[in-house]
Write a structure and sequence with these properties.
Keywords: Membrane, Transmembrane, Transmembrane helix. This protein has 102 residues and is α+β, with helices and mostly antiparallel strands. It is built from two helices and three strands. It has a three-stranded antiparallel sheet. The protein is elongated and about 65 Å long. The chain starts with a helix and ends with a helix.
Length: 102
């Protein structure tokens, strides 16, 4: 494989890792938010991540249901995690190359 293909695959892998990390962080935050809503027995609850609302729960009967209002915010948070992954890959890659050259 040529260097261009390797760098392209590395970028795709980095973006995928960032996406998966963002989805995992959101899933954990939503899970803890649902647990808190069930404990507090609220009529409705909005779960936020870094100040952005990501999930709204409304109680119908004895269970909670999601209203689907904040899909865009979840997408932006995953995008932020992808940017963070690319930034970290760039910084750590430069550090590793400079360390090997010394």
């Amino acid at each position: 494989m040529g260097p261009t293909i390797k760098s392209g695959l590395k970028m795709i892998l980095t973006l995928l890792v960032g996406l998966l990390a963002g989805m995992a962080a959101l899933s954990i935050k939503i899970w803890f938010g649902i647990q808190a809503a069930y404990k507090a027995q609220l009529a409705q609850s909005t779960i936020s991540f870094f100040g952005l609302p990501i999930y709204r729960l409304i109680k119908l009967g004895s269970s909670y249901h999601e209203t689907g209002d904040y899909g865009t915010n979840r997408g932006w948070i995953c995008f932020g995690f992808m940017l963070l992954a690319v930034f970290l890959q760039y910084i750590l890659g430069n550090w590793w190359r400079n360390r090997r050259l010394k």
